[in-house]
Amino acid sequence: MLLIRLLLVLFWNTVRATQSGKPIPQFMVGEVPAKGEPYQIVRIIEYVVPHPYEPPVKNREATDVEDSLEIIAPHIENQFMTTAKPTVSTNFIVKIYPLMGLVCTGALISRRLVLTSAQCFPVNRGPVPEQYMVQVASSAMYELDTIVIGPSSDLDRDMALMVLRISVEEPEAQPVALCDVPPKRGDNVVMYMSKQLPRFLRTHVVSNRICKNTFASIDAAYITETMFCSHNSNKRKDCQTTMGDPLVHEERLCGINIYGPRCVDGAINGDLYANVFKAEEHLQSMIGRYK
């Protein structure tokens, strides 16, 4: 009702001014006319925005061939400085094939040693080396001599060390260096994912609390001082890590994925990693023994 009365007043003032032949001054909102002058309020609409509003998507620059398998996580890219593109070759990543059971991943740390997750092997009995094969590079297959699982040795309980019968001969397969400083919260890292095609995510180390929330429904998963948490994607389809996948910081192996992903769409997801630095002394002694 008030709006109708206002419109009638404006219309009547317009008619009176038109009949008198005097132009009606127009004022922007916020300007005050002289006392007694007829006026119209003019409001300028600067933008007409459709509802619901969706901001335009910027076209990403074409990526190079080596980056074609990078997973882009916008919530990570926008909030944190990500590490540089990985320069270390992925030829240190190997696949572990059992006669039965889950296919896992590992990292070649010497010509005869592969570091992986202890979760790749049976809990109630020791693994039989003859039941596993390791694929190096594109197709070379290697038999095992020994499988050492922590904590039966000085190795961390979440790690397993596989000793190949013979040294890797493929020149393109290059062992990765071990972490020489402990990973800390905020460190930029490269999370390798090999559940399907080899992929990677540039991300960072986060509080173990995030992994505690991610793995809350998994009774067998628990967090110890020899583990750390790394931020995974907020899209479940992009969480392609698997047990044994490596995590690299400054071109050095700093983590081994323990359980694989437990991602939920739209959530802040984390993956648990065994801390390679915690076992570096023992691993270096094994590397010296099995070069």
Would you give an account of this structure?
This protein has 291 residues and is α+β, with helices and mostly antiparallel strands. The protein contains four helices and 14 strands. It has helices at 2-20, 74-77, 208-214, 280-289; strands at residues 26-28, 40-42, 93-98, 104-108, 113-117, 132-136, 140-149, 159-164, 188-193, 199-206, 227-231, 246-249, 252-257, 270-275. The strands form three sheets. Strands 3-4-5-8-7-6 form a six-stranded antiparallel beta barrel. It has a six-stranded antiparallel beta barrel with strand order 9-10-11-14-13-12.
Strand content: 25-35%
Mean pLDDT: 79
Shape: elongated
Low-confidence stretches: 47-51, 55-68, 74-80
What is the C-alpha radius of gyration, as a whole number of Å? 31 Å
Counted beta strands:
14
- Roughly how many Å apart are the termini? 90 Å
**Largest beta-sheet characterization:** 6 strands, antiparallel, barrel
Give me the strand/helix succession. Answer: HEEHEEEEEEEEHEEEEH
Share of helix among residues? Answer: 10-25%
Helical/strand content category: alpha+beta
Count the DSSP helices.
4
Strand order of the largest sheet: 3-4-5-8-7-6
Topology readout:
Elements (H helix, E strand, L loop, with lengths): L1 H19 L5 E3 L11 E3 L31 H4 L15 E6 L5 E5 L4 E5 L14 E5 L3 E10 L9 E6 L23 E6 L5 E8 L1 H7 L12 E5 L14 E4 L2 E6 L12 E6 L4 H10 L2
